[in-house]
Write a structure and sequence with these properties.
CATH architecture of the largest domain in chain A: 3-Layer(aba) Sandwich
CATH superfamily of the largest domain in chain A: Crotonobetainyl-coa:carnitine coa-transferase, domain 1
Largest interface: A-B, 154 and 149 residues
Largest sheet of chain A: 6 strands, parallel
Helix content of chain B: 25-40%
Structural class of chain A: alpha/beta
Strand order of the largest sheet of chain B: 3-2-1-4-5-6
Strand order of the largest sheet of chain A: 3-2-1-4-5-6
Largest sheet of chain B: 6 strands, parallel
Number of strands of chain B: 12
Oligomer: heterodimer
Distance between the termini of chain A: 34 Å
Structural class of chain B: alpha/beta
CATH superfamily of the largest domain in chain B: Crotonobetainyl-coa:carnitine coa-transferase, domain 1
Number of strands of chain A: 12
Number of helices of chain A: 17
Order of helices and strands of chain A: EHEHEHEHHEHHEHHEEHHHHEHHEEEHH
Helix content of chain A: 25-40%
CATH class of the largest domain in chain A: Alpha Beta
Strand content of chain B: 5-15%
Distance between the termini of chain B: 29 Å
Radius of gyration of chain B: 25 Å
Number of domains of chain B: 2
Radius of gyration of chain A: 26 Å
CATH topology of the largest domain in chain B: Rossmann fold
CATH topology of the largest domain in chain A: Rossmann fold
Number of domains of chain A: 2
CATH architecture of the largest domain in chain B: 3-Layer(aba) Sandwich
Strand content of chain A: 5-15%
Chain lengths: 401, 434
């Protein structure tokens, strides 16, 4: 069964993480994605790792394999006239062109929006960049942490009185890529509606300011009341009922509870006798009573694994979560039962276990296919433009492909 | 309809019970792109995007919870003054219908017949309880695209788990990758990173399904597990385990390969600059800017490898210097010298940020219950079909009930009055609403 975007042609000039995640979604959901890479360097994600046995190898970088599933790799040196010529012919066949060069790069290469529009007046152009195509920060250098810092919520992602603490490596860029994918299809819809190529300027900085954590609502809360509803102070426990992160037999769990769920808490820790006990019920809002409840809770915690604690709590309707590590996640029974993981054969041998599709479209399901070797599809894609096998050595010798 | 100008998704009609934060983030993108989004609410049941509770205790009103209400005003109508709803539901319409009663449900089915999409992220069993699950709605309108995105998906052992964004992130390994280097996860602040991520995937998949429907002539059910969608964000650590059996834990604000890297204090209280120093040249420029060029020639910090190894020694030396500086000035001067530096932005100052101002990122909206305020605008600039100005403020509860039921279903005034009389529809929560 073909994916939903079957028949949509994407010319992919992105690299790194955010842009490639947007075009990965297009690819996994059926679009034909032609990824342009530099003949020598390739996508920077080929150098990000992680690598098997920590040995860098451009075809074995975990980030590249994850972010480029099903794309076709065509090598092209865009600083050469022939490279640009080939690119414009590929642009002519595209429905949407997505790029994530530093602002000004496309123009410097002689491939700015007007040139692309001339090559294909109907194709949408989506420009993904750290700070957008205009404005005083346009040329700032940044990575995931810096963009998260400037997005706003990091300042209160902290325990009161301590420094802010960031999110896991690259996560903000994945989020930005997911948002960019929605605007990519929006630009495609615009072009389909008007017959004129839409040009979209997507700024990761702005996307994070509106989205990250609860960034947008918190910004508006400040405009509404002069205060924030998401603050560093909020982390502390406010009632006697255990809520927050707790150790257990083999790690940690997160509990979100309050006096209204006292009954569920009691059942979880096998103390239903306390549900109606006035000595307890009367003091649930009293934070000074917390140590006495902890004294009941800790022995139970240390006789349960995080998985057991989660399953027991959830069976009683108490939001308990195991704070899992990568090994737990890979073996998680829920993800296994849902057949989430995908084993993809690697063209150089072996297989890679990758996270499966984030969206299950029951009528037009996604399909994951392995990420391309550098230049794996140069010859077949150029053949669609009319290049013959005998043309390729000349292009190769001239460094074009 | 807020305004009729042509936008990328003009003419696409979406019914929405997209709630809390994941849902609204997705419907906001679709509304900004021009879809006609009709919130299906009721006066019997509080929409959690609008308000946390029917009656706010005073202590909560004065704390962070109350900060989300305009002027911390919890008098009646507070449901029209909530920050999340008024931010994310701009350009939407609001219809109230009591879906617990047959009459309300029949009217909902009538709207389903005229809709392209229904998106909902109620708890997994709600649509079944209401009798509006996929098989039912698919029979009502075979062209309908229905998007369901509960926390852990529609099946599997955790399908009915209770939780919030933070719950899902913990289970898929995200929480363990954050935290202070000197602490276990008990000091790791909970965040809601998976919510907007799920919403973004909703906005993507709705548009993809609309394209597919042109080809197949059929609607479909789309299922998003918020947990699975955000699991991708941990790929770096996850694949390290897949490839090397290595279990990564948190690095605090450090990086696995670059040093110095992290947040450094600047002048003032709770002020920081984020630095990512990824080359010898950047390190030399940083030391020069901080007035301490001898650091760059210190043998302990001579190259990337030694800086990484000696970062415990290097960080306090740099912090002592950054502490004397203003974070914005430092960012601008370091960026001019090619160093990756960013101020940790404070949200009470962001509407004054010169870059965001130059790009006119904030849009102003006047809402019937809230005077003109700036809101973060659409997250992309479109040249051909501009998304700005956004089409209008968020709707009042039930504001468009008569317009929609009259306009789309052809109900006359008498019938609309009867529905209101019977409290199938309305524009204020009942005292008993929960």
């Amino acid at each position: 069964m073909p994916g939903p975007l079957e028949g949509i042609h994407v010319l992919d000039l992105t690299q790194g993480i955010a842009g490639p995640y947007a075009t990965k979604l297009c690819s996994d959901y059926g679009a034909d994605v032609v990824k342009i890479e530099h003949p020598q360097r390739g996508d920077i994600a080929r150098r990000l790792g992680p690598f098997p046995t920590d040995e860098p190898h451009p075809e074995r970088s975990g980030m590249f394999l994850e972010l480029n599933t099903g794309k076709q790799s065509v090598t092209l040196d865009l600083s050469t006239a022939s490279g640009r010529g080939i690119l414009l012919r590929l642009a002519a066949a595209a429905d949407v062109i997505v790029e994530s060069f530093r602002p000004g790069t496309l123009e410097r290469l002689g491939l700015g929006p007007e040139v692309l529009r001339e090559a294909n007046p109907r194709a949408a152009l989506v420009r993904i960049s750290n700070f957008g195509q205009t404005g005083p920060y346009r040329d700032f250098r940044a990575d995931d942490m810096l963009l998260y810092a400037m997005g706003g919520v990091l300042a209160v992602t902290a325990v009161e009185g301590r420094d802010p603490v960031k999110i896991g490596l690259y996560a903000p860029l994945f989020l930005a890529g997911a948002i960019a994918s929605a605007f990519t299809l929006g630009a495609l819809w615009s072009a389909r509606r008007t017959g004129r190529g839409e040009c979209a300027d997507f700024s990761i900085h702005e996307a994070l300011a509106a989205s990250m954590d609860r960034g947008g609502p918190n910004l508006v809360a400040y405009q509404y009341s002069g205060g924030f509803y998401f603050t560093a102070q909020q982390q502390s426990r406010t009632t006697a009922v255990p809520s927050g992160v707790f150790p257990c037999q083999d790690g940690y769990i997160m509990v979100t509870a309050g006096p209204n769920w006292w009954d569920r808490f009691c059942r979880t820790i096998d103390r239903p006798d306390l549900i109606e006990d006035p000595a307890f019920v009367a003091r649930l809002y009293d934070i000074d009573f917390a140590p006495e409840l902890d004294a009941l809770f800790y022995p139970w915690l240390f006789s349960h694994t995080k998985q057991q604690a989660m399953e027991k709590g959830q069976a009683e309707g108490l939001p308990v979560a195991a704070i899992n590590r990568a090994d737990d996640v890979l073996n998680d029974p829920h993800l296994r039962a849902r057949k989430f993981w995908t084993e993809l054969p690697h063209p150089l041998g072996g297989t890679t276990t990758l996270p499966g599709t984030p969206v299950r479209m029951h009528g037009t399901p996604a399909e994951l296919r392995h990420a391309p070797l550098l230049g794996e599809h140069t010859a077949p894609v150029l053949a669609t433009l009319g290049y013959r096998v005998e043309d390729l050595p000349r292009l190769r010798a001239n460094g074009v492909i | 309809m807020p305004d009729a100008r042509e936008l990328p998704l003009s003419g696409v009609r979406i019914l929405s019970q997209a709630i809390v934060w994941a849902g609204p983030f997705g419907s906001m993108i679709l509304a900004d792109l021009g879809a006609d989004i009709i919130e299906i609410e009721s006066i019997q049941h509080l929409n959690p995007t609008r308000a946390n509770m029917r009656h706010y205790p005073d202590a909560m009103l004065q704390g962070p919870t109350g900060a989300a209400l305009y002027n911390r005003d919890a008098s009646d109508g507070f449901w029209n003054r909530g920050a999340t709803f008024n931010f994310a539901k701009r350009g939407h319409r609001s219809v109230t219908l009591d879906l617990m009663r047959d009459e309300g449900r029949e009217l909902f089915f009538g709207l389903v017949r005229e809709a392209d999409v229904f998106i909902e992220n109620n708890a997994a069993d709600v649509v079944g309880d209401l009798g509006i699950d996929w098989p039912t709605l698919h029979a009502v309108n075979p062209l309908l695209i229905m998007v369901r995105f509960p926390g852990f998906g529609l099946d599997g052992p955790y399908a009915h788990f209770k939780g919030y964004g933070a719950t899902m992130e913990a289970v898929v390994g995200h929480t363990m990758l954050r935290g202070y280097r000197d602490s276990d996860p008990s000091l790791t602040p909970p965040i809601y990173h998976g919510d907007p991520n799920a919403g973004a995937h909703v906005a993507f998949s709705v548009q993809a399904a609309l394209i597919a429907r042109e080809r197949t002539g059929e609607g479909q059910l789309i299922e998003i597990s918020q947990a699975e969608a955000v699991l991708h964000h941990t790929s770096y650590a996850l694949l390290d385990y897949v490839m090397n059996g290595r279990v990564q834990e948190h690095w605090g604000n450090r990086h696995p390969a670059i040093a110095p890297y992290g947040l450094f204090p600047t002048r003032g209280e709770a002020r920081f600059v984020a630095l990512a120093v990824d080359s010898d040249a950047a390190f030399a420029a940083l030391c020069g800017e901080l007035g301490c060029p001898e650091l760059a020639s210190d043998a302990r910090f001579a190259d990337a490898v030694s800086r990484y190894r000696e970062q415990d020694a290097l960080e306090p030396l740099l912090a002592a210097l950054t502490r004397e500086r203003d974070e914005r000035e430092l960012m601008e001067r370091l960026q001019a010298a090619g160093v990756m530096a960013a101020m940790v932005a404070h949200q009470d100052e962001m509407t004054d940020d010169p870059h965001l101002r130059a790009r006119e990122f904030f849009v102003t909206l006047e809402h019937p219950e809230v005077p003109v305020r700036p809101y973060p605008g659409p997250m992309a600039r479109f040249r051909e079909l501009p998304l700005v100005p956004v089409r209008g403020p968020a709707p009042l509860l039930g504001q468009h009930t008569r317009e929609v039921l009259g306009g789309i279903l052809g109900l006359d005034d008498t019938r609309l009055d009867q529905l209101s009389e019977a409290q199938i529809t309305g524009d204020a929560y009942l005292e008993s609403a929960r």
